[in-house]
Amino acid sequence: MLRHAARRLVSRAAVAPTARRALATAEVPAAAAEDSTFVEAWKKVAPNIEPPSTPMSLMQPRPPTPATIPTKLTVNFVLPYKSEIANKEVDMVIVPATTGQMGVLPGHVATIAELKPGVLSVHEGNDVTKYFVSSGFAFVHANSIADIVAVEAVPVDQIDPALVQKGLSEFTAKLGSASTDLEKAEAQIGVDVHSALNAALTG
Amino acid sequence: MAMAALRREGRRLLLSPTVPIPSPAAAAARSSVVSPPEMAPLGARFVSTQIVRNRMKTVKNIQKITKAMKMVAASKLRAVQTRTENSRGLWQPFTALLGDAPSVDVKKNVIVTITSDKGLCGGINSTSVKVSRALHKLTSGPEKESTYVVLGEKGKVQLVRDSKKSIEMTITELQKNPINYTQIAVLADDILKNVEYDALRVIFNKFQSVISFKPTVATILSPEVAEKESEAGGKMGDLDSYEIEGGETKAEILQNLSEFQFSCVLYNGALENACSELGARMSAMDSSSRNAGDMLDRLTLTYNRTRQASITTELIEIISGASALEG
């Protein structure tokens, strides 16, 4: 009992200053911290267990949409095993959306785009970094932040052209000999990826 | 392997005081472990120190094993920790886009509890299970149903006890091979195929440091619910302001999006939990090696005292015998 009392005291002490700060400065994002309805409901069912944290409280709040269009685009490019680009300001990115290559500049309209295998290029001044991405999603937010999530990506200069040619001919042969729908679909994906790789190398 | 050895040692420790030994001397020696050594019964000249010696050996072996387990956990932790930290960026775009709605009120809730396969890792599994139970209570009610999908042997064992009926599926041996995205994506696909859901709630222990972890709930909504929520303008980001490229319909894109989100969250969750597990095991094994060390010190002291007392007694006997002869 006393243990809980102490914890409650601590939690109250921890909450109080943030609340005061929220009053003092108006520039605190509304959605930050935790979901209060969830915490209240949680306290009702499990008063002895601390409410678990949620992803929202674990991530940095995003800035609000500025009134004027910024000159740079903030890019996050993440892979399962790595954050390839984190919060970097660049001039432009071109993403391989399923509807075609899509150039994203600062102030781009908010978009959700599904990606197909293709080349993602990041333009930063005169430097252009090219990646080959397998698939994924790109989110462009109204506040000139672009998030790109891909399953796999490699810089284009690390791809071996000979292996691409070999893979392409292998999968084309497989597509010809495929009998079931599953085999056909698998071979089709292989052909698509390899021809995209081929195009990325030659183009 | 190490765990089996530890169990064996533990059993020996449990058994050793109760092994029936007929001679009264041995019976006295048995009590010597627990009571002061002066309590030697009538007829026995000295307390036997054999049992203490045996126990010292056992404790030493246990200490060796726990130390080894600590080392193994520490070396594994280093690799997993970097992978976990690298995977943390993966779910953030989704939360930034879709927001997070732990308080969403839907009909079919699926609680995905991530636990470990092996024990001896402090309280991480019971924390996961406790949080899952509370969340189950929170989300179930009239006209609502809430089911579990359990990852990991330990969580399964604990949840089967009281909520066997609501467990939809269990998956074990997640960590046989190092966790990779492909494996988790297949697993996520398997879960999505086999359960019907309006909201998936993934519970895992987020790794903070070797000694601390934080139970975390990530909520993933089904495409229909996500659309409804964003129209209602709740906690979700307003999806309507986003233009949608690719795919035939918005629903199709949303479906792909929520499935991809689930696999990403599950991947990060599994890694975080594996990392917390290793950290917790490391600190648990550290404290048990320390305990074994303390116990060994105490036993050594008792052993040496008893030995010294018997030597002293013998000396006194010899000296007094000699002086009796002289006088």
Walk me through the structure.
- The complex is a heterodimer of chains A (203) and B (327).
- Chain A is an alpha+beta fold.
- Chain A folds into 3 domains: 2-58, no CATH class; 73-157, F0F1 ATP synthase delta/epsilon subunit, N-terminal (ATP Synthase, domain 1, Sandwich), CATH 2.60.15; 159-202.
- Chain A contains 5 helices and 10 strands, in the order αααββββββββββαα.
- Chain A has a 5-stranded mixed beta sheet, with no helix packed on it. A 5-stranded antiparallel beta sheet of chain A has the order 4-3-6-7-10.
- In chain A, helix 4 runs antiparallel to helix 5.
- The longest helix of chain A is centred in the N-terminal third of the chain and has 23 residues, at 2-24.
- Residues 13-32 of chain A have low confidence and may be disordered.
- With 327 residues, chain B is α/β, with parallel strands linked by helices.
- In chain B, strand 1 (108-114), helix 5 and strand 2 (145-151) form a beta-alpha-beta unit.
- Mean pLDDT of chain B is 85; it is low at 17-37.
- Helices cover 61% and strands 13% of the residues of chain B.
- In chain B, helix 1 packs antiparallel against helix 3, helix 7 (181-194) packs across helix 9 and helix 8 packs across helix 9 (250-326).
- Chain B has 2 domains: 2-78 and 283-311, Helix Hairpins; 89-235 and 248-281, Pyruvate Kinase, Chain: A, domain 1 (3-Layer(aba) Sandwich).
- Chain B has a 5-stranded mixed beta sheet with strand order 3-2-1-4-5, with helices on both faces.
- Chain B contains 9 helices and 6 strands; from the N terminus they run ααααβαβαβαββαβα.
- At the A-B interface, helix 2, helix 3, strand 1, strand 2 and strand 5 of A face helix 3, helix 4, helix 5, strand 5 and strand 6 of B.
- Chain B: Its main location: mitochondrion.
- Chain B: This is ATP synthase subunit gamma.
